[in-house]
Write the structure tokens for this entry.
Amino acid sequence: MPTTKASIMNQLNRNFARLKPVGIREFDAQASAVPGIVKLTLGEPDFNVPDAMKQAAIDSITSNDSHYAPAVGTAKLRAAIADFLKDRYQLDYDPNGEIAVTIGATEGIYAALSALINPGDEILVATPTFPLYMAVTTMLGGQPVEIDTSDHDFVLTPDQLKETIAAHPRAKALILNYPSNPTGVTYSAQQVEELAMAVKNTDLVVIADEIYSELVYDGQHTSIAKFIPEQTLILNGASKSHAMTGYRIGFIAGPRELMGPVSAVSGMMITSATDSAMAAATAAFGTEAGKAATQQMKAAYQERRDFLVAALTKLGFETATPNGAFYLFAKIPASAGNDDVAFATKLAEEGRVAVIPGSYFGAGGQGYLRLSYATSMDNLKTAVARIADFLKED
């Protein structure tokens, strides 16, 4: 097996050295080696892809839909996405020039930030949050500025945002993920509007990662693009709402002038998404069957959320109020200390339950655990019983 020439290693992108370990998948892999472990780690829906989406993919393959698609995605999918945004969130986007299909929301994050960041640019990030935002910003030569929301029930307040903007007047963008991974917390329409007004008189671009927008349990999701569309890039996709993680279909929507460079970057990275996956996503976003499938999944997630919140509260955990997504962010009982990595490691090795340490999600996550309830109720009940036994023995 080849070994890299030693001197070549000195020529790598220097930003690699600036990266903080993300750790989520590494921790999951280590925990997976424990025999009989119950995993509440990854944000991976346990549902199968709905039949209407699978059939659309099959039809695409059998009809020899196998050639290069436009870099921004098929016209049918972009039209379905535009209808989806209009129907769910009262947003108006032109499929031709204001929407681009990406390889999952992950690629969308990279494309959006690549189009914005010059070396040294600051990017504001409300934390705790999905750590990829900080990693990509760093890789592109930018500087993430973490805004710790833990003292405000994991909600970014207008005053906190204004203070941060004043302290970082040259910041290029604000990344806002809601409903939130890892907390499950989301924002009311009024809260979103207040944040929008705090941004409106600045030149900040808001990168709104709304991948969990269809999984809001009480009330409706409100996109910040409703208030400041002229400076918002929306990220979304089919992975979480339709259990299509392996199909890798996301999208970006925004004003035409911003979408030009963002779409160009995406096209250079991917050429285009896969035809059959885009056909499946067209059914997800553009049919009543797709809408109904999401509603069925959401009802199951809500039942699991309610069970897990009640059960962990009885065990002495304090939890954020998860009104969306499929995560619970739970503060470790005071009697167990504040080292979330040590607690999660021991819980995996001795209690046979795998969760993710909260500190992996940035400022404000220390002392918390993220539990994914994108798994069966039987698994959740087993996990709770094991956590109870673990706390007794610890």
Observations:
- The chain has a mean pLDDT of 96.
- The chain has twelve helices and 13 strands.
